[in-house]
Amino acid sequence: MSDITGITRGGTPWTPEFAVALDAKKCIGCGRCYKVCTRDVLELIDRSEDDLPEDDDDDDSESISSVMSLADPMDCTGCGACSRVCPKACFTHSAMPLAA
Ligand code: SF4
Ligand code: SF4
User: Fold this and answer.
1) What does this protein do (predicted)?
2) Cα–Cα distance measured from residue 24 to residue 49, given in angstroms and rounded to the nearest whole number
3) Which atom, in ligand 2's list, is nearest to the CA of 89?
């Protein structure tokens, strides 16, 4: 399957980078990604004991009891905004769409 490419208003081609994974062990539950995502991709959920942050002694640990999840990854447009605001580099992106 080839990469899906888009085009800007000005006619410049670009390749969406879909959010395909979120590392729960890095996530501090800050909600920054949720605030910038324009789709219904992300959802804050209760954290399981298996997903406790690796560095939970950080001062910026804002909501250790919660963790962000890719609740509806098929709604992702690949804009990349979530990664630009994430302070913990939790997201993995791919130009390839997830298999249906
Ligand atoms: S890449 Fe864009 S649409 Fe996809 S989860 Fe991140 S902010 Fe939402
Ligand atoms: S911005 Fe990063 S650390 Fe904050 S909730 Fe989203 S994935 Fe977790």
Assistant:
1) Ferredoxins are iron-sulfur proteins that transfer electrons in a wide variety of metabolic reactions.
2) 11
3) 2
**Per-residue confidence (pLDDT) for residue 50, from 0 to 100:** 79
Q: What are 27-46's pLDDT values in tens digits?
A: 999 999 999 999 999 999 99
Indicate the fold that domain 16-94 takes in CATH: Alpha-Beta Plaits (3.30.70)
How far is residue 94's CA from residue 49's CA, in Å, rounded to a whole number?
28
CB 14 within 8 A of CB 8: yes
What is the per-residue pLDDT for 55? 61
- pLDDT tens by residue, 55-86: 655 555 455 789 999 999 999 999 999 999 99
> CA–CA separation, 97 vs 25, rounded Å?
24
**Cα distance between residue 90 and residue 88, in whole Å:** 5
- Cβ atoms of residues 57 and 46 within 8 Å: no
